[in-house]
Structure formats: structure tokens, C-alpha cells
Design goal:
The chain is an alpha/beta fold. The protein has a single domain, classed as Rossmann fold, CATH 3.40.50.300. Helix 3 crosses helix 5, helix 5 packs across helix 6 and helix 6 runs parallel beside helix 7.
Length: about 250
Amino acid sequence: MPTLSTRELTIRFGGHVAVDAISADFECGTLTAIVGPNGAGKTTYFNLISGQLAASAGRVLLDGEDLTALPAPARSRKGLGRAFQLTNLFPGLSVIENLRLTIQARAGLGGNLWSIWSSHRALIDEAGQILERIALSHRRDALASSLPHGDQRKLEVGMLLAMRPRVFLFDEPTAGMSVDEVPVILDLIRQIRADRANTVLLVEHKMDVVRELSDRIIVLHNGQLVADGEPAEVIASPIVQQAYLGLAPEAAA
């Protein structure tokens, strides 16, 4: 059974069909890149999977369980983890507090943040380990709002790790990052992909990133799935190169 499936997933805005009956299966231990031109429906498809948008038709299944009627928070608790195109942090909290709050929510702990943490050493240790993984130990007490963009992206990935999802949804994780900042994010995604218990979906415009990381590429255009296969096969397709990826044929050679 696939970890994640969409069945005829569709959303309409008035007379415009933004995502048009997309059916796809995503297997455990794989990274699927979702590509296409601006306006193709990639982020909207992610929003339908994660529950930020309600589908007009179709279904979203996780391990065979129908999640279509569930809102985003409930889907997150079921194991769908989403990193957004724009950072989604608690700006008035420190780096470590962002991680602690995420871990607290995952563990189902209520009440006062600080009184709870004093009696949960294992959770405190987990937050510290995630800080090391995302290379932000030196900024643990800095406000999230004070971090440069690249560090904010790293913190968001850290919060995603703290949720321990089974499915990771990355929407342009390197957007707005400098050349020096990108490798840390890519290394984190590689680590997540290396755990064969995880399923990763990635929306990304940078084709060198897509080539390196993906096991499979799905191409969307005008809300429809127009290509699906191994990276070399999909990138080599003339219709994809010219119409959907904006590449000249020789650029994908």
C-alpha cells in the first residue's frame, strides 16, 4: 500500500480548475519532485494534500485512511508534515522555544510551557539534538524574527523534524536562500530521504536540485498531471523541456 495517495484530487475556484483530477501514489522511502511552470498548480496540490484547502472533489489517503474531510491540524497529527514556501515560525519566540513548542504539541502536553519542560528531560534533549542537526545551536536563544532568511528556513525544517511526520512536504525549500545557505537545507533533506521510513514530496524550481535529490518527477501543467516517471526519462522528454520546464533540449542533456 502506498504511504500517500491522491485520487482524482480536484479544486475549482469559480470556473477555474486549479488542480484537475490528479491521481498519484507516493511510496515509502522515496523522494518525488513536483515541477512545472508558475501557475501549474504545484502549491495548490500541496495545499490540498496538507488540508490548507478543501478539495472540490477527490480524496487524500494516508496508509489507506481517507483524510479528505480532516482539517490541516488533524492531518498533521496523522503524519503529514508541511514546510511552506514562506517561513511559518513563531517570530516572537526564540529558536529553542519554537522547537520546544512543536515537540510539546506533538507529545500532546498542555499547560504552561516552562513548568512542563522542567519535568521532561528527554524532550529537552530532543530539542537540543535537532538544533545540532540544523546547525543553529549557536543561535538557540535568538528570536526567530531576528534570524536571517536562510536560518529561518533551517528552523522551519527543524520544526518539521520535531513533528516526526511520515510524509514530508517541502514547498520550494531553497527559495530566497543564498548560494552559501542552500547546502545545509539540501543536506537536511538528504538525511530525511535516507531514512527509508519517510516519504518526501518536493516542489522545487531549481533543476539541479531536482536532478540530485529525486527518485521520481511529476510534472503539472494547467492543474493537470502531464508527465510522471524517473528523472532522466521525464527531463529528456521534449514536451517537458520546452513547454513545462522552460529548458532548451540541450540544457537537460
